[in-house]
Protein backbone atom coordinates (compact mmCIF):
# COMPACT_ATOMS: atom_id res chain seq x y z
CA UNK A 1 0.00 0.00 0.00
CA UNK A 2 2.83 2.40 0.90
CA UNK A 3 4.59 1.67 -2.39
CA UNK A 4 1.34 2.25 -4.28
CA UNK A 5 0.87 5.65 -2.62
CA UNK A 6 4.50 6.56 -3.30
CA UNK A 7 4.08 5.62 -6.95
CA UNK A 8 0.91 7.69 -7.17
CA UNK A 9 2.67 10.74 -5.74
CA UNK A 10 5.61 10.33 -8.13
CA UNK A 11 3.32 10.05 -11.15
CA UNK A 12 1.35 13.11 -10.08
CA UNK A 13 4.57 15.08 -9.57
CA UNK A 14 5.83 14.04 -13.01
CA UNK A 15 2.58 15.21 -14.56
CA UNK A 16 2.78 18.56 -12.77
CA UNK A 17 6.39 19.12 -13.84
CA UNK A 18 5.53 18.16 -17.41
CA UNK A 19 2.52 20.49 -17.39
CA UNK A 20 4.68 23.38 -16.16
CA UNK A 21 7.19 22.69 -18.94
CA UNK A 22 4.58 22.46 -21.69
CA UNK A 23 2.46 25.38 -20.45
CA UNK A 24 5.65 27.48 -20.27
CA UNK A 25 6.50 26.89 -23.92
CA UNK A 26 3.08 26.45 -25.53
CA UNK A 27 0.79 28.42 -23.23
CA UNK A 28 -2.51 27.11 -21.96
CA UNK A 29 -4.27 27.39 -25.31
CA UNK A 30 -1.53 25.66 -27.29
CA UNK A 31 -0.72 22.95 -24.75
CA UNK A 32 -2.31 19.54 -25.26
CA UNK A 33 -2.87 16.80 -22.73
CA UNK A 34 -1.26 14.38 -25.18
CA UNK A 35 2.00 16.36 -25.18
CA UNK A 36 1.96 16.78 -21.40
CA UNK A 37 1.49 13.03 -20.98
CA UNK A 38 4.34 12.36 -23.43
CA UNK A 39 6.74 14.65 -21.55
CA UNK A 40 5.71 12.99 -18.27
CA UNK A 41 6.37 9.56 -19.72
CA UNK A 42 2.82 8.28 -19.26
CA UNK A 43 -0.12 7.71 -21.56
CA UNK A 44 -2.97 10.19 -21.87
CA UNK A 45 -5.38 7.86 -20.08
CA UNK A 46 -3.15 7.99 -17.00
CA UNK A 47 -3.12 11.80 -17.12
CA UNK A 48 -6.92 11.92 -17.17
CA UNK A 49 -7.03 9.51 -14.24
CA UNK A 50 -5.27 12.18 -12.16
CA UNK A 51 -6.65 15.30 -13.85
CA UNK A 52 -9.97 14.86 -15.71
CA UNK A 53 -9.50 18.10 -17.67
CA UNK A 54 -6.80 20.52 -18.75
CA UNK A 55 -8.40 23.18 -16.55
CA UNK A 56 -8.07 20.96 -13.48
CA UNK A 57 -4.45 20.31 -14.35
CA UNK A 58 -3.90 24.07 -14.62
CA UNK A 59 -5.44 24.51 -11.17
CA UNK A 60 -3.11 21.89 -9.72
CA UNK A 61 -0.14 23.66 -11.32
CA UNK A 62 -1.23 26.99 -9.82
CA UNK A 63 -1.57 25.41 -6.37
CA UNK A 64 1.83 23.75 -6.78
CA UNK A 65 3.69 26.95 -7.61
CA UNK A 66 2.05 28.89 -4.76
CA UNK A 67 2.53 26.15 -2.15
CA UNK A 68 5.33 27.87 -0.20
CA UNK A 69 3.43 31.15 0.03
CA UNK A 70 0.25 29.34 1.01
CA UNK A 71 2.11 27.49 3.78
CA UNK A 72 3.60 30.72 5.14
CA UNK A 73 0.28 32.56 5.10
CA UNK A 74 -1.55 29.64 6.68
CA UNK A 75 0.53 29.95 9.86
CA UNK A 76 0.47 33.67 10.53
CA UNK A 77 0.57 33.02 14.27
CA UNK A 78 4.22 32.08 13.73
CA UNK A 79 5.05 35.42 12.11
CA UNK A 80 7.10 37.92 14.09
CA UNK A 81 4.32 40.56 14.04
CA UNK A 82 6.99 43.00 12.89
CA UNK A 83 5.40 44.50 9.78
CA UNK A 84 8.56 45.07 7.77
CA UNK A 85 10.14 41.74 8.69
CA UNK A 86 7.00 39.76 7.94
CA UNK A 87 6.41 41.50 4.62
CA UNK A 88 10.05 41.01 3.63
CA UNK A 89 9.65 37.29 4.34
CA UNK A 90 6.46 37.20 2.26
CA UNK A 91 7.99 39.27 -0.56
CA UNK A 92 11.03 37.00 -0.70
CA UNK A 93 8.82 33.91 -1.02
CA UNK A 94 6.75 35.68 -3.66
CA UNK A 95 9.82 36.76 -5.61
CA UNK A 96 11.33 33.27 -5.43
CA UNK A 97 8.10 31.85 -6.85
CA UNK A 98 8.10 34.41 -9.67
CA UNK A 99 11.74 33.67 -10.47
CA UNK A 100 11.39 29.89 -10.43
CA UNK A 101 8.34 29.91 -12.70
CA UNK A 102 9.05 33.08 -14.68
CA UNK A 103 8.64 31.42 -18.10
CA UNK A 104 5.25 30.03 -17.12
CA UNK A 105 4.08 33.31 -15.59
CA UNK A 106 5.25 35.41 -18.54
CA UNK A 107 3.54 33.03 -20.94
CA UNK A 108 0.23 33.39 -19.13
CA UNK A 109 0.56 37.17 -19.05
CA UNK A 110 1.34 37.22 -22.76
CA UNK A 111 -1.69 35.19 -23.76
CA UNK A 112 -4.08 36.46 -21.07
CA UNK A 113 -6.61 37.69 -23.60
CA UNK A 114 -6.75 34.24 -25.21
CA UNK A 115 -7.48 32.28 -22.03
CA UNK A 116 -10.83 30.50 -21.98
CA UNK A 117 -13.11 31.73 -19.21
CA UNK A 118 -12.75 28.40 -17.41
CA UNK A 119 -8.97 28.79 -17.26
CA UNK A 120 -9.24 32.32 -15.89
CA UNK A 121 -11.60 31.12 -13.17
CA UNK A 122 -9.16 28.36 -12.21
CA UNK A 123 -6.28 30.84 -11.88
CA UNK A 124 -8.40 33.25 -9.84
CA UNK A 125 -9.53 30.50 -7.49
CA UNK A 126 -5.90 29.48 -6.93
CA UNK A 127 -4.40 32.94 -6.36
CA UNK A 128 -7.21 34.89 -4.69
CA UNK A 129 -6.99 33.02 -1.34
CA UNK A 130 -3.34 34.11 -1.02
CA UNK A 131 -4.36 37.70 -1.68
CA UNK A 132 -7.13 37.47 0.91
CA UNK A 133 -4.78 36.02 3.52
CA UNK A 134 -2.32 38.88 3.09
CA UNK A 135 -5.20 41.34 3.35
CA UNK A 136 -6.26 39.59 6.57
CA UNK A 137 -2.74 39.97 7.97
CA UNK A 138 -2.74 43.70 7.23
CA UNK A 139 -6.24 44.05 8.69
CA UNK A 140 -4.89 42.48 11.88
CA UNK A 141 -2.08 45.04 11.81
CA UNK A 142 -4.68 47.82 11.61
CA UNK A 143 -6.31 46.45 14.75
CA UNK A 144 -2.92 46.38 16.48
CA UNK A 145 -2.16 49.93 15.42
CA UNK A 146 0.75 49.55 13.01
CA UNK A 147 -1.14 50.04 9.72
CA UNK A 148 -3.25 53.12 9.06
CA UNK A 149 -7.00 52.41 9.13
CA UNK A 150 -7.60 54.53 6.02
CA UNK A 151 -5.51 52.23 3.80
CA UNK A 152 -7.44 50.51 1.00
CA UNK A 153 -6.06 47.03 1.69
CA UNK A 154 -7.03 45.23 -1.56
CA UNK A 155 -5.57 48.10 -3.59
CA UNK A 156 -2.44 48.21 -1.43
CA UNK A 157 -1.84 44.45 -1.74
CA UNK A 158 -2.28 44.55 -5.51
CA UNK A 159 0.20 47.42 -5.77
CA UNK A 160 2.68 45.57 -3.58
CA UNK A 161 2.56 42.30 -5.51
CA UNK A 162 2.46 44.27 -8.76
CA UNK A 163 5.81 45.87 -7.93
CA UNK A 164 7.32 42.43 -7.35
CA UNK A 165 5.88 41.09 -10.61
CA UNK A 166 7.22 44.12 -12.50
CA UNK A 167 10.67 43.47 -11.07
CA UNK A 168 10.69 39.89 -12.34
CA UNK A 169 9.47 40.90 -15.80
CA UNK A 170 12.05 43.68 -16.00
CA UNK A 171 14.88 41.32 -15.05
CA UNK A 172 14.05 38.86 -17.82
CA UNK A 173 12.59 41.01 -20.57
CA UNK A 174 15.18 43.80 -20.37
CA UNK A 175 18.24 42.15 -18.75
CA UNK A 176 20.51 45.19 -18.45
CA UNK A 177 22.82 46.24 -15.63
CA UNK A 178 20.75 48.36 -13.24
CA UNK A 179 23.14 49.02 -10.38
CA UNK A 180 21.19 47.08 -7.76
CA UNK A 181 20.65 43.44 -6.90
CA UNK A 182 17.46 41.42 -6.99
CA UNK A 183 17.45 41.31 -3.17
CA UNK A 184 17.84 45.10 -3.01
CA UNK A 185 14.88 45.53 -5.34
CA UNK A 186 12.68 43.28 -3.20
CA UNK A 187 13.74 45.03 -0.01
CA UNK A 188 13.12 48.41 -1.64
CA UNK A 189 9.58 47.35 -2.60
CA UNK A 190 8.93 46.33 1.00
CA UNK A 191 10.32 49.58 2.40
CA UNK A 192 8.27 51.67 -0.02
CA UNK A 193 5.13 49.73 0.82
CA UNK A 194 5.67 49.86 4.58
CA UNK A 195 6.28 53.62 4.49
CA UNK A 196 3.02 54.03 2.60
CA UNK A 197 0.79 52.02 4.94
CA UNK A 198 2.38 52.14 8.39
CA UNK A 199 1.54 54.43 11.28
CA UNK A 200 5.21 54.70 12.24
CA UNK A 201 8.11 55.87 10.12
CA UNK A 202 10.69 53.47 11.57
CA UNK A 203 10.42 49.76 12.42
CA UNK A 204 6.60 49.46 12.24
CA UNK A 205 5.50 46.53 14.38
CA UNK A 206 2.12 44.86 14.64
CA UNK A 207 2.57 44.99 18.39
CA UNK A 208 2.72 48.77 18.40
CA UNK A 209 0.00 50.58 20.32
CA UNK A 210 -2.03 53.38 18.72
CA UNK A 211 -1.04 56.91 19.60
CA UNK A 212 -3.25 58.57 22.21
CA UNK A 213 -2.27 62.10 21.27
TrEMBL record:
Keyword Transcription regulation: yes
Keywords from the named record: DNA-binding, Plasmid, Transcription, Transcription regulation
Pfam families: TetR_C_11, TetR_N
DNA-binding region: 32-51
Domain of life: Bacteria
GO MF annotations, alphabetized: DNA-binding transcription factor activity; transcription cis-regulatory region binding
HTH tetR-type domain: residues covered: 9-69
Protein name: Transcriptional regulator, TetR family
Protein source organism: Chroococcidiopsis thermalis (strain PCC 7203)
Lineage: Bacteria, Bacillati, Cyanobacteriota, Cyanophyceae, Chroococcidiopsidales
Amino acid sequence: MARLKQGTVKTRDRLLKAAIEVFSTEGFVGATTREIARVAGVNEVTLFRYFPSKEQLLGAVAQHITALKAEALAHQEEWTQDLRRDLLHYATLHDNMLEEYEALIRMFIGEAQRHPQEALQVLQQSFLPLREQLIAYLRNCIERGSVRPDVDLPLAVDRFTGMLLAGMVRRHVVPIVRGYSRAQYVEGCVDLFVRGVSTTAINPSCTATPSTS
